[in-house]
Automatic annotation (TrEMBL):
CDD domains attached to this UniProt entry: NAT_SF
Source species: Mastigocoleus testarum BC008
Protein name: Acetyltransferase
InterPro entries named among the record's database cross-references: Acyl_CoA_acyltransferase, GNAT_dom, N-acetyltrans/Recomb-assoc
Annotated GO MF terms: acyltransferase activity, transferring groups other than amino-acyl groups
Keywords: Transferase
UniProt keyword Transferase present: yes
The organism's place on the tree of life at top rank: Bacteria
Residue stretches making up the N-acetyltransferase domain: 1-153
C-alpha cells in the first residue's frame, strides 16, 4: 500500500469509491433516501478531478486500486475521507490520516477540523479528535446528523 498525492487519472476511481462507500457502508447509519441524496447516481468525475486537485488529497494506492482517500484544505479542514468498502478496518484510513496530519504539521497548522458522519465519528475519535457539537446539515432535500470535530496539533 502506497500513500501518495492525488493524480488526475484517479478522479473516476475516487468518484466511484465515494459513491459505493456511501451507498454500501454509510447505509448502516443513514436512511436510503439520505445516502441517495449524499451520493446521487449522477456523479461527474470531472467535478472530483477539480475538487481533489485544489486540496491536498492523499490516496491509498494498492497496486493501482484506490483503497481510500482523504482531503486536507490549507486551513486545516478535512473534507472528504473515505475508505473503499473492501478496505474497511484494515489500517488504510490510519495511513491516509497520518499523511494528512504530517502535511498539516508541515503547513504549521495548530488544529484540524472535520464534519464526521455517524459512520466516521469513531474513526476520528481514535485519531485523537474530540466532538465539538452534533449538528444537522441538509443536502439535496435530506437532513443528516454529523459531528463537528477538532484535534489540536
Amino acid at each position: 500500500m502506497k500513500i501518495r498525492l492525488f493524480e488526475k487519472q484517479d478522479a473516476e476511481k475516487i468518484a466511484q469509491l465515494f459513491h459505493e462507500t456511501v451507498r454500501e457502508i454509510n447505509i448502516h447509519d443513514y436512511s436510503k433516501a439520505q445516502v441517495q441524496a449524499w451520493a446521487p447516481d449522477n456523479i461527474h468525475f470531472r467535478d472530483w478531478e477539480n475538487r481533489c486537485s485544489n486540496r491536498f488529497t492523499y490516496v491509498a494506492d494498492d497496486k493501482g486500486a484506490i483503497a481510500g482517500f482523504g482531503e486536507l484544505e490549507p486551513n486545516g479542514h478535512i473534507d472528504c475521507f473515505y475508505c473503499h468498502k473492501n478496505y474497511q478496518r484494515c489500517g488504510v484510513g490510519s495511513q491516509i490520516y497520518q499523511a494528512v496530519e504530517t502535511k498539516a504539521l508541515e503547513l504549521g497548522l495548530k488544529h484540524l477540523t472535520t464534519e464526521a458522519s455517524i459512520t466516521a465519528k469513531t474513526f476520528f475519535q481514535r485519531m485523537g479528535f474530540s466532538v465539538i457539537k452534533e449538528q444537522e446539515v441538509s443536502c439535496r432535500g435530506e437532513v443528516f446528523i454529523n459531528y463537528l470535530m477538532q484535534k489540536n496539533l
